[in-house]
Amino acid sequence: MHIGDLAPDFKLPDQEGHERTLSTMLLNGPVVLFFYPAAMTKGCTKESCHFRDLASEFSALGGQRLGISMDSVDKQAEFTTKNSLDYPLLADVTGAVAKEYGVKRGLDLLKVKRSTFVIGQDQRVVDVITSEVNMNAHADRALEALRTLKR
Questions:
Q1: Where are the alpha helices (DSSP H) in 7-72?
Q2: CA distance 124 to 121
Q3: To pair with 81 at 20 to 30 A between CA atoms, which of 50, 60, 88, 89?
Q4: What are phi and psi of 32, to 5 degrees?
Q5: CB distance 61 to 147 below 8 Å
Q6: Cα 142 from Cα 151, distance rounded (Å)
Q7: d(CA 50, CA 135)
Q8: Which string of DSSP letters, residue by residue, matches 58-123?
Q9: Is the pLDDT of residue 101 over 80?
């Protein structure tokens, strides 16, 4: 996936088991879709909590945060509760969506490449963030991309 590409639509359950689709969420504003390797791990917790801590900034720019991993609905629910996350976490258990977005790894050890896609309401990718080591870069750069959409 590259800037300007049409983001694939999908339907996945969130941490409460409710089905979510990208196309429906985009009706309410741009979506910041971030793939993370595994719930309850140190790096993924840091990244997810940074997205949580910047809630008001995302809200001010109309951006909707949406996390996705290959963890189960139950694991996503546990992760949400433990870290007081205030946005949906989607369970892509088979990795089908990760594969469509080009972030599924060949080996299931880390499952997906840590990647964030900022998607405009036209379903076009506005930015792609792929840092594997800087957990804060994803939310920070996503906010920058949302600011460019507001101009």
A1: 22-26, 42-53, 55-60
A2: 7
A3: 60
A4: -105, 105
A5: yes
A6: 15
A7: 8
A8: HHHTTPEEEEEESS-HHHHHHHHHHHT--S-EEE-TT-HHHHHTT-B-SSTTT-B--EEEEE-TTS
A9: yes
Which among 22, 33, 39, 44 is annotated as catalytic?
A: 44
Note if 44 is an active site residue. Answer: yes
Sign for the pseudo-dihedral over CA of 126, 141, 133, 76: negative
Residue 63 in tokens: 């951006």
The amino acid at 16: E
List the structure tokens of 118.
Answer: 């900022």
Contacts of 101 (CB under 8 A, 6+ apart): 1, 7, 8, 33, 35, 115, 117
Q: What is the pLDDT of residues 10-62, one digit of tens each?
A: 999 999 999 999 999 999 999 999 999 989 989 899 999 999 999 999 999 99
